[in-house]
Phosphoglycerate dehydrogenase
Amino acid sequence: MPDLKQMRVLVSATSYGKSDPGLIRDLESQVGQVIYNQTGKPLKSADLAKMVEGVDGFIAGVDVIDRAALEHADRLKVIARYGVGVDNVDLAYARERGIVVTNTPGANSVSVAEMSIALMLDLARPIPDAIAATRQGNWPRSNGWTLEGKTVGLLGFGAIGRAAAVRLRAFDCRVLAYDPYPDRAFADKVGVELAGMDAILPECDFVSLHLPLLPETRGLVNAGFLAKMKAGSYLVNTARGELVNDADLADAIRSRHLAGAGLDVFAVEPPPADNPLLSLPQVIVTPHMSAHTDGATNRMGWMALENCLAVLRGGKPTHPVA
């Protein structure tokens, strides 16, 4: 069996072990050296290239893990993604180099689903504006929507979409869902109606995105998509910023075809100051915080750690991607 005490592991995920120090103790007790990302933010390709030399295992955040960085990985055996998405990883080159890539499916599903619903609630009831006004000494009479009886469309019915559906049904929402490979048994069990995307859009008061970033989903939410949405409805995105054409969404809100949007993700993060959505009061924006909860980070941490150590020991990880 390989000697883990002769191995070095790079941890770039900035929240690793923050709410469960046992993750740090466990990793440091098993391998020879652990190198941490001290920048407090995801690593760019050039930064990663400097850190990955001589590293055997890599517990990775949302860094840019491209060919240029991986060319410097002279000993790397595993990239254990601390999360689900692998669109920032050059999977083809990793495969060519014999580097195993893993992820942590389902670890943050509940947290992201809860964030999606939090954004819906903030859009339905102008809570941020009411807080600001009250602190300024005002006492506004603010009207809003109940979620009860509203129709919510979930585009993507994987682990996060299913978690959102269960919670939305508890709000007594009518829930419609689209997925190219839907779990029909689960949908029937919780009372979700499966339908095509074009059938869902005009029916829903809220449309929530839970699709992966793929060539066919990049820029999916464009002018044509938005025109099909119900007048006065809201868009929520906790999936990937690249799914949305920001300029088209801003136009749809300015024209009042859409009432607003709740966005936790952007194609460029942080979004530049001239992003048209930032200046619209009908848009709630948050800094990609959906998965930043104790429950999600702990589950992601333990799953990533187990995947990483399994490969370093010469075994098979539980959640291989490539």
Q: What stands out?
A: The domain at 109-285 is CATH 3.40.50.720 (Rossmann fold). The CA atoms of residues 4 and 30 lie 6 Å apart.
